[in-house]
Write a structure and sequence with these properties.
Layout (H helix, E strand, L loop, with lengths): L10 E5 L8 H15 L4 E4 L5 H8 L8 E4 L9 H4 L8 E5 L6 H8 L4 E6 L3 H16 L10 E5 L7 H13 L3 E4 L4 H9 L8 H19 L1 H24 L7
The protein binds adenosine-5'-triphosphate and magnesium ion.
Adenosine-5'-triphosphate binds next to α1 and α7.
């Protein structure tokens, strides 16, 4: 389904959860708006036939920092698939907004080469159930290795002290997957979506609380190279004791 670019310097952030309405587009567009404001120009790849991210980009005021949009759900006869999906060279952050229903093949495809995978989850029992399935598929079907620290959850539209939220926390804790931010149920996200902007482009006093959480997500995303490096380093260290053990003369069978 998707051909994704193979660039070492590209941070591919995939927002995924087959559960409809959990906040994938809201998260994708707010991340893209933040990256746009900071520069260089980011890209949103919209894989959802509903085209919600593309509609949001089209709504964007001309005065706002630009964002490239790729309508990956469209098939054109005029261009090759790889040409259609090419990410502009200037982009260092690519945000992939995925659709509500995703086959196993598409899940594998969309998460391939991802440096960060974000799963927005709302804290109702139905959503938590769907999220557990989604995370299981990411680990077992898409073969995302938890030790790679690519996977994180964003709790969305939540009130911290609910029972279901505690349940979600326990579940993720048992899997060792971090919840990197907790976004409130806030009209700020609704208004931003309507105007084609991100909350980072609204008046700061209105979005102070929401920005604190959004910046936690940005910090985690920005640590992608560090996370990748730490994983490589950890796997090297893990291998060393074996090398040392087998090198010990007393342990040799010969
Ligand atoms: N934190 C929030 N506070 C208030 N409203 C929110 C929040 N997050 C999302 N919404 C609203 O919930 C609705 C669904 O969100 P969104 O479109 O981002 O979900 P989605 O996962 O992309 O849905 P779909 O699966 O249909 O693509 C939208 O109307 C959006 O404005
Ligand atoms: Mg969406």
């Amino acid at each position: 389904m998707l051909i994704t670019p193979n660039r070492q310097d590209l941070n591919k952030v995939v927002v995924v959860n087959p559960k409809g309405g959990c906040g994938k587009t809201t998260l994708s567009t707010n991340l893209a708006a933040y990256f746009a404001k900071r520069g260089p120009i980011p890209t949103i790849m919209d894989c959802d036939p509903q085209g919600s991210s593309m509609t949001w980009i089209e709504r964007r005021p001309t005065t706002s920092a630009p964002i490239h949009g790729i309508a990956a759900y469209k098939r054109t006869m005029q261009a090759t698939r790889s040409w259609q999906l090419r990410v502009p060279q200037e982009t260092t952050n690519l945000v992939v907004d995925s659709p509500a229903s995703l086959s196993h093949d598409d899940l594998r495809e969309v998460t391939r080469d991802a440096s960060s995978i974000l799963v927005p989850v709302m804290p109702s029992s139905i959503d938590i159930h769907a999220a557990s399935r989604c995370i299981a598929d990411l680990l077992l079907v898409a073969k995302v290795d938890r030790r790679d620290r690519k996977l994180a959850v964003v709790a969305n539209r939540t009130r911290k002290n609910t029972k279901s939220f505690a349940k979600l926390m326990r579940f993720l804790d048992s899997l060792g997957i971090p919840i990197i931010a907790v976004l409130r149920d806030s009209q700020n996200f609704v208004h931003a979506a309507e105007e084609g902007i991100g909350i980072c482009e609204m008046q700061p006093y209105k979005v102070k609380k929401d920005m604190v959480e959004l910046e936690k997500i940005i910090d985690w995303i920005d640590s992608w190279e560090e996370r990748r490096f730490r994983t490589t380093e950890a796997s090297i260290i893990e291998q060393v004791p074996n090398v040392v053990t087998y090198a010990k003369p007393g342990l040799s069978r010969n």
